[in-house]
Amino acid sequence: MNLKTTMNLSPIRVGLLGLGTVGSGTFNVLRRNQEEIRRRAGRGIEITMVADLDMARAQALVGEDVQVVDDARLVVASPDIDIVIELIGGYGIAKALVLEAIESGKHVVTANKALLAVHGTEIFAAAQRKGVMVAFEAAVAGGIPIIKALREGLSANSIQWIAGIINGTTNFILSEMRDKGLDFAAVLQQAQRLGYAEADPTFDIQGVDAAHKATLMSAIAFGIPVQFDKAYVEGITGLAAQDIRYAEQLGYRIKLLGITKRVAGGIELRVHPSLIPAKRLLANVEGAMNAVVVHGDAVGTTLYYGKGAGSEPTASAVIADLVDITRLHTADPGHRVPHLAFQPDAMSDLAIVPMSDIVTSYYLRLKVADEAGVLASVTGILASLGISIDAVLQREADEVGGEGSTQTDLVILTHDCVEARMNDALAQMQALATVLAPITRIRKEELA
Ligand code: HSE
């Protein structure tokens, strides 16, 4: 079919489930850029049906030409809809609707990382059986086209590792903690007041949202099934302002990173706060911005930066998926880009390695009695386990605890060691009578 004939086709018809922030952004950008989008896709893309519980508000937003319903099932079942955009979120009704859309032969675009990270295997298998596409660019890092980059742009590479700042809320909180010297709880309250953090920010601050996204990146980078249940997840709730300050003095910044890495024993998949050298580009990603570093064996290190959330940035990713589907829906399913980048019958069974087996370096902060022999006993434990020290920082006791204080902070950076061994060292150091509070341990990534 030549371009002229294609451009004469009637628009592809899209049903939108959920006209919230991203849904209305999608509607607005599609309308504003409709001509350019049509020239790219080869035919128009029109939202013809919207499901939203607040029908009056939705109708006012989309105008009289679009059918608005309050029951999403009507959209999913409609014979007049070719593509369903799911922007409801969560694992409940969204899962049922996505599976019903697939069963009725519709292609699906979703921003729902939680759904795909947990139920992706079932959803992609259903889509495969029905010969439809489930596209999810908007599910990871909002407007940054990281799925496209990993799945297509980097397909020559054996991907070695990915490290990303993939949650804007926590990056905003960490940036504020560093700028203003405030503790986590104070900044969280401020972020909620300003509307940056959700009223219930649990998934963000506990690292769950970032782990959903890391799980999806891991699957498409290494051709493994989505395995959120095997991801290690640690959030930022335990971070203290003094750790951010000490890290800074040692030349590092603390970021919540989603990391997935190819190692001898399989694949690492983990989300936790990490010290990274202040000179790395990733360390300078501030506020609510997202960034992902991908290291491939051929290309080396590449960096993707942009807005990880918000109405039109996320809409940008949703619409890119609509364009892809519009171009490819008539293609033989075997000629499309596989959901998880690798052909379904060529997936890898590489295991996610347990956290005790990962190898990394560490930042340790110990509140200790300021007396002779304390440093020697702590470093003696590390030495006895073969853990090499990279740097030590000890503050004057007066500086830490006020004049006449008999306690001080001992901060240690180690070289790489296996996590199980560090756990042993931590248990032994914690048992010392001169260690006066729970030891803070933050992992450190050089990202070299
Ligand atoms: N809550 C997410 C964030 C945005 O703070 O980055 C959507 O994934």
List keywords for this structure.
448 residues, alpha/beta, Rossmann fold, Dihydrodipicolinate Reductase, domain 2, Alpha-Beta Plaits, 3 domains, 24% strand
Task: Write up what this structure looks like.
With 448 residues, the protein is α/β, with parallel strands linked by helices. The protein has three domains: 3-145 and 312-346, NAD(P)-binding Rossmann-like Domain (Rossmann fold), CATH 3.40.50.720; 151-307, Dihydrodipicolinate Reductase, domain 2; 358-444, ACT domain (Alpha-Beta Plaits), CATH 3.30.70.260. The protein has 17 helices and 17 strands. It has helices spanning 3-7, 21-32, 34-41, 55-62, 72-77, 93-103, 113-130, 146-153, 168-180, 184-193, 202-205, 208-222, 241-249, 311-328, 374-384, 397-401, 419-430, and strands at 12-17, 45-51, 67-69, 83-86, 107-110, 134-135, 159-165, 232-233, 252-263, 266-277, 289-296, 300-307, 359-369, 389-394, 407-414, 417-418, 440-444. The strands form two sheets. Strands 7, 8, 9, 10, 11, 12, 13, 14, 15, 16 and 17 form an eleven-stranded mixed beta sheet that branches. α4 (55-62) links the parallel β2 (45-51) and β3. The structure holds L-homoserine.
Task: Quickly describe the structure.
This protein is α/β, with parallel strands linked by helices.
